[in-house]
Amino acid sequence: MENLSKLLESFASLLWPLSFVAILVYFRSSIASVIESAKGRKFTLKVAGNELTMEQVTEQQRHIITDLQEKIASLEEGLERLQSGASPESDVRDDGKIDVSKLKILWVDDNPKNNSFLVASLGELGVDVHIAKSTTEGIQLFNSIKYDRVISDMGRPEGGQAGIDLTKLIRESGSDVPVYIYCGKWAASNFKESALAAGVTGLTSSGTSLLKMLRLNRANKQSKTDA
């Protein structure tokens, strides 16, 4: 009797899962249709009473982030000019700075998705950014196109100091094009000396600082590091 009771309990515990599976099988065509419809549906979000698609939300967020980055960079520049005794409102062209909208930049990173917002910000300013995912691909592009700036991450599958290795190859070619390494805080701190010794112009873990570095004076005589 005890065994029969346990058997009934076991059967009861299986009844709900079996019923659920039966329902899925019976309505499988309808469920498949709903899933397929959801794939093509554009989800929306209400903001300030307006219904926006996720693409529109993302685009507006990107514009806000770009604006904040630009304002922070401008504030930092103004502070630096005040500290040097110059007027914070002086025309940047008088300080020998280039028109950023005419820049052509090579960005080497094995995971370019990490830089999507920064690349979009540069593109919005009119900067032409070319992407390479390895040192080999980067050097090939560098040798075929004249770039005004080069940006690289530090570590890639090809090596933990791939950014420095890339810089060495660029310097060995005789080019003095400014090279910036955009990496994590640990790498920016621990590889600072070897990076500058290899000819890196600037090293930073801050996207805002990177945007500011790209607008340094034409000569780029003074290297800057922000860890």
UniProtKB/TrEMBL annotation:
Residues 104-218 form the Response regulatory domain. GO terms for biological process: phosphorelay signal transduction system. The chain crosses the membrane at residues 7-27. The keyword Hydrolase does not apply. Keywords: Membrane, Phosphoprotein, Transmembrane, Transmembrane helix. The modification 4-aspartylphosphate is found at residue 153. Pfam families: Response_reg. This is CheY chemotaxis protein or a CheY-like REC (Receiver) domain. It comes from Vibrio gazogenes DSM 21264 = NBRC 103151. The lineage of its organism: Bacteria, Pseudomonadati, Pseudomonadota, Gammaproteobacteria, Vibrionales.
